[in-house]
Amino acid sequence: MNGKVETNRSPVVDSMLLLVSVVMLLAGIGAYYYYQDLAITPVRVAGLIVVTLAAAWVAGQSRKGASFFRFLKEADIERRKVVWPTHQETLQTSLMVIVVTIIISLFLAGVDWLLGALVRSLLSGG
């Protein structure tokens, strides 16, 4: 049995929910700066966080908002699956990159020196 509930909501309602969410967010930001002299910063920050969470909840009620939050949830699940290299693996890989870079730079310096000597001998006439 599928746990999803299909809603037959109009696209206009979804657009209105997103618009209300944006207006709430802009009003919260405006209030944060409007009350700059009247309220201490932690109170303004807490108010802005509350308004942002409320706006996110309103946006999440629309299809696009629900889809976005589902994407974020799935991205977090994938992020948890990442296997990071150990310190030893990171050190070995970094050293290999440094060694290969030095070898290639020496090779290119040698080719440059040889080509320079060839061009100098051709230009000097013999």
Distinctive features:
elongated; 126 residues; single chain; mainly alpha; 0% strand
Report on the structure:
This protein has two domains: 11-80; 85-126. 4% of the residues are buried. It has helices spanning 11-34, 41-60, 63-80, 87-124. The model has no long low-confidence stretch (mean pLDDT 89). It has 126 residues and is mainly α. The radius of gyration is 30 Å and the shape is elongated. The termini are far apart. Helix 1 (11-34) packs antiparallel against helix 2 and helix 2 (41-60) crosses helix 3 (63-80). Helices cover 79% and strands 0% of the residues. The longest helix is centred in the C-terminal third of the chain and has 38 residues, at 87-124. The chain has four helices and no strands.
Secondary structure elements and pairings:
Layout: H1 11-34, H2 41-60, H3 63-80, H4 87-124
Helix pairs in contact: 1-2, 2-3
How would you summarize this macromolecular structure in one to three sentences?
The chain has 126 residues and is mainly alpha-helical.
Mean pLDDT: 89
Give the percentage of residues in beta strands.
Answer: under 5%
**N-end to C-end Cα span:** 88 Å
Radius of gyration, Cα only, in angstroms? Answer: 30 Å
